[in-house]
Each structure stands twice: as structure tokens, then as C-alpha cells.
Amino acid sequence: MRENQQEDFPGADRHSDADNSAPHSPFNVAENTNLPSDGNGAPQLTRRSFLMWVGSSGAATALPAAAASAFAAPMAASAPVTMDPGLVNVRLTVNDVVRDAQVDVRTSLLDYLRENLQLTGTKKGCDHGQCGACTVHVNGRRVNSCLSFVAMHDGDTVTTIEGLGTPDRMHPMQAAFVAHDGLQCGYCTAGQIMSATALLKEPCGRSDADIKEAMSGNICRCGAYSNIVAAIRQVRDAT
Ligand code: FES
Ligand code: FES
Fold it and tell me: Going by CATH, does the domain composed of 165-238 fall within 1.10.150.120?
């Protein structure tokens, strides 16, 4: 046993019922004659003696009303609040039609086109900007719509594969893909055609190698590359 162990226990067993009739403060020298001394006659407050005082005196429940309300205020302030869903108003011209919408700021352009406007010709492949299946035109330039938030395109003009042509009036690039059999399953085809038509306005050389380089962001799992290049070359040579 440590030499001062008895002093660490401020004599709880020596408290009389009379002593416990009212809360004692460990800071009240007159009331706490059982507190250990520091050697100079002054009472020595220890962590243990303080906790024993709190437990025995009911001090925690004897807080004045003002103090209790001071604790209650921050708790009321931390009550659950309704989160702002983060909606934003956008206006886009999609395939020559003005579209107004209120969308979550996290909505990609791809999801807006497919889920809000049901323009499902634009495909979601990787959703990570790696396959090109989601390619559309924004203000005439090709964009991976999966990598772009629709909130960034307020006021922009968007063209999807549905706006490029119709089965009865196909765009020359669509007709060339059909003529050269530039597709198999067709999942990548909308993105391929949107990239290919944008390429016509880009500073791209006329060789097949130039076309392949310019189309390298569009992946075809079916491997229809040679026919895709042939289709693009035909349209390029005609312009
Ligand atoms: Fe956008 Fe693949 S879905 S690049
Ligand atoms: Fe099937 Fe390109 S035609 S992925």
C-alpha cells in the first residue's frame, strides 16, 4: 500500500449521516475536513476526491436552473435540421428545344439527358470518361457528358444523336456508318458518330492515322474500328 493511499480516499467511511445531509463542496475547506492535506494544513483536492464529492452530494442534479438552461441551449441548437437538397435551376437548348429544369447540382449532363429528358440514344458506358459512349456536342464541341455537371451548362446548346438526324433524314455520318457497317452491337455507335461529326470541324489531318488518333477516346468493344475509320474517311473526303 502506498504511503498516502489512505489520504487519496478522503474518508468516505468517516462521513456521518449528518455530514451528507447537504451537498458539500470540495472547495469548501470548512466543510471538508476529510480532504487530504498538502502538508501545510491546506486541503488537497484530488481527482478521486472530486469525483466522490460529485457522486455523493448529487451535485450534478443540483445545478441551478440558469446553469441547466445554459447546458440545454447548445443541445437545442444541435437538433437535426433539414438539409438543403442543393437544387439549381438550369436552362439548356437541347436538340433545338429550350429545356428548363431544377436539378440536383450533382447531376451529370449524361444523367440529365437520359433520366430527365429520356434521350437514351446517348449511352452510359464507363461513367468515368474512358469510353466515349456518352459523347454529345456542347456548343458544337464534343464532350464526355458523364464528366460534366449539367449545372455547368446553363445557357448552353447541346446536341445528342437524336438531334443529329432521323431514320428518314440521316446525317451523312450516320449514313456512312450504315453503308460501311461501322457497328456491331451498336452500344458505342452514338458516341462514335457524335465524335466523328465533331472531328470534321477540328484541325485533324486527313490520314487514317490522324482519324484513329482523333477517335482514340471512343472505345468499341466489338472491334468495328476499321469500318468506323472507313465511314469517317468517306465523309471527310466528301467535305
Ligand atoms: Fe462517359 Fe464512358 S460513359 S466516357
Ligand atoms: Fe459494339 Fe462498338 S459496336 S461496342
Answer: yes
